[in-house]
Specification:
Radius of gyration: 13 Å
Oligomer: single chain
Structural class: alpha+beta
Order of helices and strands: HEEHEEH
Strand order of the largest sheet: 2-1-4-3
Number of helices: 3
Distance between the termini: 9 Å
Shape: globular
Largest sheet: 4 strands, mixed
Helix content: 10-25%
Low-confidence stretches: none
Length: 93
């Protein structure tokens, strides 16, 4: 049975816009960015191999210029997009 996870905060992206600057703020103090687009998963070590801000925002923002959904911050990891295998790995299921 899947375990239940409670969110500490939730933001409706239709009501609150997260542009490039706001998206980059999510990465402050974080060590890993995982971006999922379909079956493609990109992992970025933000401590050792941090790309430039333009590359990061290109990965994090959708075609509307808003932060892609879903976006989750789990400890020192930022997850963008959905991939079942990645979620199972991060949430230990």
């Amino acid at each position: 049975m899947p375990r239940s996870i409670a969110a500490s905060s939730e933001v409706d992206a239709r009501k609150e816009r997260f542009d490039g600057e706001a998206a980059l703020q999510l990465l402050k103090g974080k060590s890993l960015l995982i971006v999922a687009k379909g079956k493609s998963v990109k992992r970025v070590d933000l401590k050792k191999d941090r790309p430039d801000d333009e590359s990061l925002t290109a990965m994090m923002l959708g075609p509307t210029g808003n932060l892609r959904a879903p976006t989750l911050v789990v400890g020192k990891t930022v997850l963008i997009g959905f991939n079942a295998d990645v979620y199972a790995e991060v949430f230990g299921e």
